[in-house]
Amino acid sequence: MTTILDGKKLRDEIFEELKGKIEKLSVKPSLAVILVGDNPSSKIYVNNKKKCAEKLGINSIVISYPADITEKELLNKIQELNDDKNITAILVQLPLPDHIDKFKVIDAISPKKDVDGLTPYNSGKLFAGEKPYVYPCTPKGILLMLDHYGIEIEGKHAVVIGRSNLVGKPVAQMLLNRNATVTLCHSKTKNLTEITKTADILISAVGKKVVGENMLKNNCVVIDVGIFRGENGKICGDVDFDKVAKTTSYISPVPGGVGPMTIASLMLNTFELATIE
Ligand code: NAP
């Protein structure tokens, strides 16, 4: 029997503990979220983040710009937020419109306010095996979930599908830093199934149905990061859950797995940045 990795339950436990810690702070954390354009999914994500923050006693402001804002204006705003002592965390909601260089924008955020852990300083620390101010939210959420369920990482073969800067690369590095043997796969990987069949832990962060029946050995731990609308319009993940879950030891569902853990990590990161000495 497989165990379902319940991200919602764990998120609620994390929130409960975090709320108490935030109440004890003399100065409340303040999260500034920048939203550019009117991508409907981005709007939903930003609203959810604001609601969660407020529930936990975190001040939250959303700064919205039209899609035609110039890169210079956006960079100026980030500089202003970096200098603002009342703001302890900054998040730029991705994706950004094509005329804006997202790397320049991320690079402009002060590493001490970089709540997504994506600046070159924080990702450099992570990739050097040192401690960044905070870890990227989705990878951090995945590791919290593995640890909470007592899933061993050291010495295990972890296969990560997807190599984005947001999820695939940092989660692979975090697993490597925890002494897993890591294989990182992507769209040009040949014989994906030959590789996934050797996984003790499989993490899929693609955004398409890529993990099906007969691709895994028995008792594999499966973490499904993907989230997209399937043909029937329903939210689904990368993994063919019903078939794959028959042979796994642990598996995360979509929705209700990694998604809630990402938001939990965002709130944890906001708290951690507010308490930097
Ligand atoms: P991304 O930047 O689009 O990266 C997707 C990765 O998948 C790329 O590395 C790509 O390879 C790889 N890929 C594409 N087709 C493949 C195939 N057929 N076989 C193997 N690899 C393939 O996406 P992302 O930002 O990492 O997000 C991935 C998914 O996770 C999306 O569904 C996103 O919505 C979801 N997500 C969920 C959360 C959450 O909190 N639940 C958070 C973040 C993202 P190449 O590099 O070769 O193109």
Q: Kindly give the count of domains.
A: 2
State the low-pLDDT regions, or none.
Answer: none
The CATH architecture designation of the largest domain is 3-Layer(aba) Sandwich
Fill in the CATH topology of the largest domain: Rossmann fold
- With strands numbered from the N-terminus, the spatial order across the biggest sheet is 1-11-8-7-5-6
Strand content: 15-25%
Mean pLDDT rating:
97
Measured between the Cα atoms of the first and last residue, the distance is: 46 Å
Q: Which percent bin holds the helix content?
A: 25-40%
CATH first level of the largest domain: Alpha Beta
Structural class: alpha/beta
Number of E-state strands: 11
Instruction: Please summarize the sheet with the most strands.
Output: 6 strands, parallel
Radius of gyration: 19 Å
Tell me the number of helical segments per DSSP (H or I, 4 or more residues long). 10
Question: What descriptors fit this protein?
Answer:
277 residues; alpha/beta; Rossmann fold; 2 domains; six-stranded parallel sheet; three-stranded parallel sheet; globular; binds NADP nicotinamide-adenine-dinucleotide phosphate
